[in-house]
UniProtKB/TrEMBL annotation:
The lineage of its organism: Bacteria, Bacillati, Actinomycetota, Actinomycetes, Micromonosporales. Residues 1-21 form the signal peptide. Keywords: Signal. Residues 195-366 form the DUF58 domain. Coiled coil: none annotated. PROSITE patterns: PROKAR_LIPOPROTEIN. It comes from Asanoa ishikariensis. This is Uncharacterized conserved protein, DUF58 family, contains vWF domain. The keyword Signal applies. The keyword Cell inner membrane does not apply.
């Protein structure tokens, strides 16, 4: 194939036609010369079959951060490669690739680095590499779109974990909780920790009279918060999870809260499982140790996307009951919508509450609060405020129905949602209700 330089030379030859005695013969000769030079240039261009392509770099990155993936082009031929290389990615990968021509002498290689700032979670694949090999005169080139030797690469974009900044504060509260329960003595549902000598101020109900008789001293029992409990995070990935809360889907806010809860529960000595369900089980993580828990969770959550279907809560309850034989804390991340919960969750909820402690965690857009608190200036503001009040009252009605069924409800704006879920877990742990 020829370049714009060939067309430029042909145009210049056409401009000189009036200077020749036989213009048409001169044009034919000039055209033949230019085409011959282009053919020679095409033959001298480095062959694309001699190229070897390889990739390395980052394979995972958090949403909102940048990653670097390098493409190495090696020339195993006998001619110098003068090429334009286009490394194509899906648009949501946010790839910024080098532009311009590269020269690769025979037997050497060059590395091209692509900076990627993805705009969506999930797997962002590289589409292909297009190489255009130019001749030394720049008149012709060889090109192969999507080089067959292109190495596959897939960048996994992990969910944001912006609530990580709250983890030190919640962990400190957990340590205070441990110390408070140990010094105050026994609390309902707590576990025995150790025996120690009685000191003034201890609850006399904690005295172990048998141990005191054996040691000829007054001994008291100390207790610690419940450990080795099971915490199950259930993500509703149905149609309600696709609603945008602020600048992200509700599902992403639920993921952020679930990661904070899982990290906190793991530090408290509890075992964390995760389940993502709509009309089928989309992700499942169970039995993860503390050291690998967060890595397994973020990898399982990364490819999840909302499904535009009604969530099958019968399937949700059935899966939880099948997987969790012992009592556990079930945290269901869903939406407080009368239609979805009234027809789907409420009829099957008693089966779940009978065996487990259930928390329904839902988030709403902070705009709802703003609509109901600001002073209306126009008729449109009045209607907007009425709509906000109606939405909040419907949520309150659903929450009241859930609480009557023995369910704890967490309903908070997106900016406070993760912290509110963690606080609910700490409160239940302090009351020994896990």
């Amino acid at each position: 194939m020829v370049t714009w330089r060939t067309a430029l030379l042909l145009g210049l030859a056409a401009l000189t036609m009036p200077l020749w005695a036989a213009p048409w013969w001169a044009a034919a000769v000039a055209g033949c010369v230019v085409l011959a030079l282009s053919a020679v240039d095409f033959v001298l261009a480095a062959a694309l079959r001699d190229l070897v392509l390889a990739r390395d770099g980052d394979s995972a990155v958090r949403l909102g951060q940048s990653a670097t993936v390098r493409l190495r082009v090696r020339n195993n031929g006998t001619r110098t490669l003068r090429a334009d290389v286009r490394d194509a990615w899906v648009p949501s990968a946010g790839a910024v690739t080098p532009r311009g021509r590269v020269e690769v002498p025979a037997g050497t290689s060059v590395t091209l680095a692509a900076e990627l700032t993805p705009t969506r979670r999930g797997d962002r694949p590289a589409i292909g590499v297009t190489v255009r090999s130019h001749g030394p005169l720049g008149l012709a080139f060889r090109q192969r779109r999507e080089h067959p030797a292109t190495p596959p690469w897939r960048l996994r974009v992990l969910p944001r974990f912006t609530s990580r900044v709250l983890l030190p504060e919640k962990t400190a509260r957990l340590r205070v909780l441990d110390g408070t329960i140990v010094t105050r003595g026994r609390g309902q549902g707590t576990e025995f920790d150790a025996l120690r000598e009685y000191v003034i101020g201890d609850d006399v109900r904690s005295i172990d009279w048998r141990a005191s008789a054996r040691r000829s001293d007054v001994m008291v029992r100390t207790w610690r918060p419940e450990r080795d409990r099971r915490v199950v995070c259930v993500l509703d990935t149905g149609r309600t999870s696709a609603v945008r809360i602020g600048d992200e889907p509700r599902l992403d806010a639920a993921m952020d809260a679930a990661l904070l809860l899982a990290s906190l529960a793991a530090r408290a000595g509890d075992q964390v499982d995760l389940l993502a369900v709509d009309t089928a089980v989309r992700a499942s993580v169970s039995g993860a140790g503390r050291q690998v828990l967060l890595a397994k969770l973020v990898n399982a959550l990364a490819p999840l996307q909302p499904a535009l279907v009604e969530t099958d809560f019968e399937l949700v309850v059935g899966e939880v009951l099948r997987r969790e034989r012992k009592r556990a804390l079930i945290v269901l991340f869903t939406a407080l919508e009368p239609g979805a919960l009234g027809e789907g969750l409420l009829p099957v909820l008693p089966r779940l509450v009978a065996r487990h402690k259930v928390v329904v965690a839902a988030t709403h857009d902070p705009v709802l609060r703003d609509l109901t608190t600001r002073e209306p200036a126009t008729a449109a503001d009045v209607y907007a405020a009425a709509a906000g009040h109606r939405a909040l009252s419907e949520r309150a009605r659903v929450a009241a129905a859930l609480r009557r069924g023995g369910v704890e409800v967490v309903d908070a704006p997106a900016t406070e949602f993760a912290g509110a879920v963690a606080d609910a877990y700490l409160t239940l742990k302090a009351l020994a209700r896990l």
